[in-house]
Amino acid sequence: MKLALSQQALLGPLQLISGAVEKRQTLPVLANVLLQVEDGNLSLTGTDLEVEMMAHVPLQGDYEPGEVTVPAKKFLEIVKSLGAEDQVRLELVENKVKVITSKSRFTLSTLPATEFPSLEESLGLIDIKLDVNELKSVISSTQFAMAQQDVRYYLNGMLFDFNPEQKLIAVATDGHRLAMSSTPVESEVQDRQQAIVPRKGVLELNRFLTSVDEEIQLSISANHIRASSNHFSFTSKLVDGKYPDYEKVLPKGGDKLVIAGKGSLKESLQKASILCNEKFRGVRFNLQAGLVKIHSNNPEQEEAEIELEVDYNGPELEIGFNVNYMLDVLNTTQSERVKLTFSDANSSLLVEEVDGSSSVYVIMPMRL
């Protein structure tokens, strides 16, 4: 194996696929990146057996085909240390990979490419094309609500729900709050199809999408999801489980509507959060005509009360929420104003963007 390319052409793809490399090294080869040279391309692959990322870099000039694996972290650090104007030559010599520039020489140990695992291909149930920004938007709008280490393992990820109405709906919940966002897709899906992408898969997919500026091919099979473009591909195993019926969680019949400026509501919540109980993070909303009072206190008998003018004409209502959950939603929404729909002190809050965005958020109340 022999090839040459610029440091700039190599660094970006190598940084991208390194996110999928196994950190705990259950198998030595999982700490390596797979290098494959054929048909005028260098392919780089990283995996942890759950997530796999691959990048294709076009080569210029002479090359010799071949394949081998090298330590991902060391290889990345070497390439990072080189200058942007450097030309990099890679050569496989006697089971060592030499990384050569005009002024630097490195020799890396290798493991055989035959030891490198790949996620098996399976027949796709869904195969669609969609704009990269639309896919990134639905993921970015919802990923904060994923559970982290919940015993309900199917919550430690994101639901992708494809329905016959030509929509992709992304849903995330940790049991205390729920985020949902949708985007239209061109699909020939006749029956509803659902897939749960694990937490790491979602985070790496979102990172992958920031490196791509072209149309994405999204394929889902019984066990895997794959997103691919001309030069990159991302594959993740799916979570084997049944996701809760999120449509039943969406509050219906709320009759108390509050319209508030996102910036002023966020600022008021941040002020109230200073004197929150550090463990429970609860704040109390007191709705009055044209006004909401946000109250917090803590075990040290310290209190905060913030008044915020809002558009509200309904009856008085007092209800408690986790302030962090509220701020997470406001940090995600794009609209300048938000609509809060309340029912009563024991019912969930529905948060929507006033500009008609396709994202909605549900936050469970707290007893304070």
Give an overview of the whole structure.
The structure is a single chain. This protein is of the alpha+beta class. It has three domains: 2-115, DNA Polymerase III, subunit A, domain 2 (DNA Polymerase III, Chain A, domain 2, Roll); 124-248, DNA Polymerase III, subunit A, domain 2 (DNA Polymerase III, Chain A, domain 2), CATH 3.10.150.10; 256-363, DNA Polymerase III, Chain A, domain 2. It is built from six helices and 24 strands. It has an eight-stranded antiparallel beta sheet with strand order 5-2-3-4-16-15-14-9. Helix 1 (7-18) runs antiparallel to helix 2 (72-81), helix 3 packs across helix 4 and helix 5 (262-273) packs antiparallel against helix 6 (323-332). The longest helix has 12 residues, at 7-18. The protein is elongated, with a radius of gyration of 25 Å. The mean pLDDT is 93.
